[in-house]
Amino acid sequence: MSNEATPSVQPAAAVAEGIASYIDHTLLKPEASEADVLKVCSEAAEYGFKSVCVNPVWVKTVKKALKGSGVLTCSVVGFPLGATPTDVKAFEARGAVLDGADEVDMVINIAAARAEDKGTLVEDITAVAESVHSSGAILKVIIETALLTDSQKVLACQAAVEAGADFVKTSTGFNGGGATVADIALMRKTVGPDLGVKASGGVRSLADAQAMIAAGATRIGASSGIAIVKGEQGSSAY
User: Fold this and answer.
1) pLDDT tens, 117-168?
2) What percentage of the chain exceeds 90 in pLDDT?
3) DSSP per residue over 171-202, as a string?
4) Would residue 118 show up in a list of annotated catalytic residues for this protein?
5) Is 67 an annotated catalytic residue?
6) Given phi > 0 = left and psi -120 to 50 = alpha, else beta, which region is 120?
7) Which of 137, 139, 222, 228 is 20 to 30 Å from 105 at the Cα level?
8) 105, 124, 166, 208: the active-site residue
9) Closest CA to 18 of 179, 237, 197, 209
């Protein structure tokens, strides 16, 4: 498990100036080109975002582009449906880390969460965690809050904790609604103070980001990162 310190939860007003360091600058559109990916990398380096999050095929490109910038490389696994066999998710995660990913965001087995099958969830997450942690990378677990009841969200978060994840994350941005303040508060309450909580999907403004942080988020996933740091209103769905 990674030794990276999880940022402490702070009042929203205290983080307005340093908001960029919370943001995973995200480009997960399937049609994204190399030029699009390099543009996002340049923006992340300029604004000091925490990471650039891309699909696995772009990890090597991002790692090279971000070299020396201090910005992390993040990729996704089992994305966006989570309906991939566990061994395939673990293999995909291992490949992403070998290609240079510092962080991996995996999608859980959503059907298992809806069936309240905690054992399957723990097994799924544990296998990916082992692949990711073997190289010292960070694992974030996407529970896809829009598709779960509150009790299922709690179960999924508990499974992530039991499996050794470093973060729980609200959403892919591809399967309905995104992050809500209520969901962040519930996830924070469930995982306790030490695990990271990432709000993603629909965070498009500084006010949105501050509200999520005040509720307990320690990371923000957004493709509207520049709008957020400028105090403007973003338009992207993620």
Assistant:
1) 999 999 999 999 999 999 999 999 999 999 999 999 999 999 999 999 999 9
2) 87
3) --SSSS----HHHHHHHHHHH-SSSEEEEESS
4) no
5) no
6) alpha
7) 228
8) 105
9) 209
